[in-house]
Structure formats: C-alpha cells, structure tokens
Amino acid sequence: MTVQEWCLVDGGCIPVHSADGLREVGLRPALLDAHTYAGLAVELPTMTPVLLRQLLVPVVLDALGPIDAEAWADMLDEARFTPDQCAVLARYLDEHRNSFHVFDDVRPFGQAAGLTHPKGVLKPVSELMPHVATGNNTPLRNARTDADPMPVPVGEAVRWMLHAQSWDTAGLKTAAVGDPKASAGKTTGTRVGPLGSLGVVTPIGSTLFETIALNLPIGARPDGDMPHWRRDPQGPAWAERTPVGVLDLFTWQARRIRLIPTRTDSGLHVSHVVMSTGDRMPDVPAWEPHTLWTIKKDPKKGSVRYPRRHLPGRTGWRGLKTLIALDQDTTGVETSTLLTQIASATLTGDLPVTYPLRAETCGVVYGNQSAVIDDVLFDSMPIPMAALRADMTLRGSVIQVCAQAENLAYALDDLAKHLTLAVGGEPAPAGKGQQPGTKLLHTLDPLVRRFLTGCQHNPDDAELDQAHHAFETLADRAARAAANELLHRLPGRAFNGVTQGRGSDAKTYRQANAERFFHAALRRHLTHLYPPAQETKTA
Q1: Averaged pLDDT score across all residues of the chain
Q2: Contact between residue 511 and residue 488 where contact means Cβ atoms under 8 Å apart
C-alpha cells in the first residue's frame, strides 16, 4: 500500500471488542458489522466520544439523512443496520472514499495539506497524546527524545489527531506559515478543544451498533450542515464562527494538523506532526447533545444555559440527580439531549424499561491557564431506565440512595471534626486533607452501583423496598465501622472534652456528644432502616 492509498474506510482505525478479542477495523466493518462488536476498545476513556462524534455518528447521519423518532426507534428495535441501510452506508463510503485518505495531497482526512511551521519545525507525534510527556516534561533518562520519537501506526495516529481536535489544551500555539492572524510566529487566544469545556455524558448500549444509535440526535437539520470532509479543504487560515448544525459541531476542526508519514520495517507509521490553531466557537451551542446543563434565570436575557463540568473526586452517581433531571423549570438543571431522547423512548414503549443503559461521564481538568492537563475524569455507571420516567417510584428511590451515601459521608466528616475539637485540635478545613467521609464513599460505591444495576430490572414496589432496606443495612454497617475506626484512635481526654469560649458563648465538645450527633444522623438519613417514630394522638 502506498502512502496515498492509506484510507480509513478499510484501514484499521477503530479499535473494537470482538468475539475474537481486541481488533482494529476500518470504517466499513465498524459500521456494517457494528452489531457484532461489544463496543469500542479505547486507549483513554476520553477517546470514546471522540470516535463517536468525529467518525461513526457523522457518517451514519450524513449517509442516512435526518432521522425522526419513529425511524430511530425502528433502528433500536432492529438492533442492527438493515440491509437497505447497509447498502446506503456502503455506497456513501465508496462515494466519499477519497475524503478518507489520510495522506492525500489535497484533502488529507481531518488535516490541512502542506501545513508547515516557520523554519520547517516538526513536533513528535506524542504532541497529540495527553498522557505522554513531551518537551521539557520528558524524563531525563527517557529512551526517546522529541528529536527521535517513537513512530505509531497510522490508525492510532489518526485517533490521537481526532482526540487533539476535541480535547487539546489552550494557550499560545506556534502559528502555521500562511496564517493571516499570526503575530510574531504565534497565535494567541487559542481555546481548549470543544469537548474540553463540557462535562461529557455518552450513552452506551449493549453493542457498538446500539451505542451508535443511542448517540444519534434525531430531528431535522439546517441547510448547509455537513461534516468537515464534505467542506472545502483546510488551509492555515482559521475563523471564529457558530456551528451550522450537529454534523458541523461533531466534526469541528479546532486545530490545523498534518501527520507526517514514515516507513519502518513494520510498515507505514507516523512519527511527527505539524499542529497549529484552528476554528473557534464563540459559545457552546444550546443544542450540544453530549453535556448536562445548568439553567439560570437572568432578568435581561431570560433563561441562560451553561454546560456543567464534572468535578474531580466525584463519582458519576453523585451527580445522578442531574443525569435524570428532565424538568429544568423546577430543578435548575437539565440532563443531556440524548438522555432526554432516551427517556421519551421509554415513555412511548420504544425502549424497554429493562434496557441495560450505561452512561459514561468524562472530562478534562486543565491547569495553568488551560495550557496543561492536570487530570482526566471518567466514570461508567448503570442508568435504570425507569428512573428517567418522572412518574415512577423508582426514580425517587435511586435519587434517595445516592443522597443517603453522600449524607453518611458528611455525617462521618462531622464526627471526625467534633472528635478533633474534643481533644483540643484544629479540624482540617472542608475539602482539604484526607477526609474520612471520602474513604467511606469508596466503601459505599459498590453498594450504590449494585443497587442501580438491580433497579435496571424494573423491580416492583415490594422488591424495591427490600433492595433499599438491604442497601441501608450495609451502608449503616459500613458507616458505623468507619466511625469505630475513628473512636479507637481517640485519646482518653476526649471523654471529658474541651470547652471553648467563655460565659454564655462557652461550648463544650465531648466524645459522647459527637457520637450522639453521628447516630442521630444515621437514624435521620436511613429512613427504611430507622422509620420515623409514629406520633401518638392524645385525646
């Protein structure tokens, strides 16, 4: 295969879980045989929304045209592309095959042909990989340097190129030759990739096909909405503009990139890249389908929507109330468009209430003016379909279980604070240091997930009550064990306690009071295990 012939249609670029193990397949088998694959087998969790948005979903939407609710439901019911749809997809890939050539001289896929930096400077391909040290961050005794980077296979290099288009850092970028907005060889004001400003939520199905279908936004699309491979070839120039529609948004070119091919003993690889700034969005579109929203009332602007970000150190179920928030007017938050779409399908019966839906949440924490990546956030959790229906008892129960786990952690932190005061110590500020409640949340995490998974079977009221009681029993046991661990380390002087302040402002902190408050919190929050006492009526 020559350099110019390497094409994503058939070349291995999509890693999948197949019956034979992990494989890398081209676009054609990834789509036509999607029902035979369990899902994507990505290097980093942030790669899943990238491959869906930049490749798989846009090809399906552009080939099949706008999809209405009925057609979308039929796809899920069929659980695979029909023979007619497969024929349309195959014909689309054949017609646009030239647009998927990675090293085309005029229109290389996702790249700007001939892109160069001043003086011909090249960057190692690891510049596209957020988990690989480059430049000044390279370890002193590293086997490879930027001048001699490790070549990577073409398919893998394309994936990281698309990842950079979606998640790249902000800050100064070396300007490409021919960039009319360059200043002193640099471009200022570059923003993070379009996914970097979101708390991304990706619905995941039982197969790759179902995952693709669950991520298809339904409804009409505006004129002129098309993926980047059907637009004019890119050059070094860039613009600030608003996406035309979902295809434009999903395949947004936030960077100008060129992959430099090289021949090795094992075939065609990529070792160097050229990368500069690309197109910019003024704001996240209100119809962005892969994020949660905060809605605020502004007296001048009316209802204003802000994409929510995932918080470091918080498991996905701690934000479950937002994930299933369908009514923004009463909660001030709203779930993603795609989860709202799935919720509607459960109400109409197009999706069974026992469907094993999962939601993957991922995000990036940027630091130092968003020019570096401090952390990558990820979680995957089961979503009971019945919880997406506001009229279901189960919805309130799953929200309550998640809140109970958090409240037990807060109660344990309060116990630790009062015990520290009882020995004359100074409690750690909230959110600082190692809090015992954080450790308890790790203990409760599998209990919450087990409860959510069980709720996917749509239990009746009696089964739900039994499962909730079982959760509270185990949660109560875990919380008391964590409290006993704190008490066993306590010196004897905590029994008498410490008095702070004088006169009417005096307050005494004792071990006994701390334990009493903690046990009261357990009884207050675990309402199935400790039902509120019935009030007795007097004559």
Answers
A1: 89
A2: no
